[in-house]
Write a structure and sequence with these properties.
Order of helices and strands: HHHH
Distance between the termini: 28 Å
Shape: flat
Largest sheet: none
Number of strands: 0
Helix content: over 70%
Length: 70
């Protein structure tokens, strides 16, 4: 599952953008399934923080910002 993938990525701590990619994927999947809205928001916000602090991730930041916009 995506949540297992996220746990594995977070555990091994590879390039931080991989973690953000996994977090945002889980957030989108949960949102599409109408599951755990608090978790969706936190995962997306955590991913956004990583993207914003990583060089060359402006497009991904914008995607998350659009996703989080009301």
């Amino acid at each position: 599952t995506l949540e297992l993938a996220l746990a594995l990525v977070e555990e091994t701590k590879p390039w931080r953008v991989y973690t953000a990619d996994a977090q945002f994927a889980v957030a989108r999947a949960k949102d599409a399934a109408k599951m755990e809205p608090e978790s969706v928001k936190k995962l997306a916000e955590d991913a956004l923080a990583i993207y914003r602090s990583s060089a060359g991730q402006e497009a991904k930041s914008q995607s998350v910002e659009k996703f989080l916009a009301p």
